Amino acid sequence: MTNKRLAATALAYSPSNPNQVVTVDFARNIDIHDVTTAQTTRLATMQSSDGVATSIAWHPDGQSVMVACYYGVVKLYTVGPPGTTSTIYTLLDEKKETKGTKVAFSPDGKTAVAGLEDGRVLLWDVTSRTRLPISAQDKHSAAVNGLTFSSKDGTLVTASSDKTIKFWTGGKVVQTHPLNVEVRSVAFSPSGVHLACGLQDSSIKILDAASQTQRRDLRAHASAVVDVAFSADGNALLSASEDRTVRVWSLIGDYAQTTDTDKKAQAIAVSPGGNSLAVLFDMRPVVFYAKP
Fold first, then answer.
1. Statement to judge: residues 70 and 148 lie in one domain
2. Which residue from 182, 173, 177, 181 is spatially nearest to 195, judged by alpha carbons?
């Protein structure tokens, strides 16, 4: 069931309120929406020099959001009570030298991470907002397309067009795993046991996160899988593809449910309680689906 449509270029659910979603629209407005009451609160308006937002992440404590932008900008915005002015902290400003692609916070909220089109992965200490040192040898050789943290041990995994995923611990790459095809998206299961990778060749690989052993190979899309997300209970995997479909895969059974659309999906997000799903479409409104 569709609840509401909002034009946006990036979105994220609140970690503490499953009815709240933060979006950035084409006019660079950052808004917080209540999807049940349709109430909208303006958090901030980005500068035109930042470029269009490409990714947004909500801090685990709900007190700030981080935005990556097309012109190599990453900013942190504080979230206060309605009517309060958001304080803005600039973490990165590359002056259009590269594109910010993805942002995420670690589960403990202590670390912020951004992926860039030039293959770099940048880390910040959230409290001091200072950049953490990273070896230049740890960068990807092509664009970073996905970031995900394990809730189990805080491991960071980055996915790239260089056909690899990298496992990070303590700000260092501890393992690089080749997949032989561009990796468009990546997500840990809620337990941190499994890792799903959406690939350019239309397939989805589900790996054991500890051993990187392949557990399942899902093949039903007809084009690149641009985003993957696990259900809140970890029993299902959702995937969005350039083939204009969104699929729900059972991980305890042997079925897949398909929703056909008339446009390409860019991203999907599952609410913390698992009661709703948000799908971001290319140059179109976000569509919210409520759990039956």
1. no
2. 177
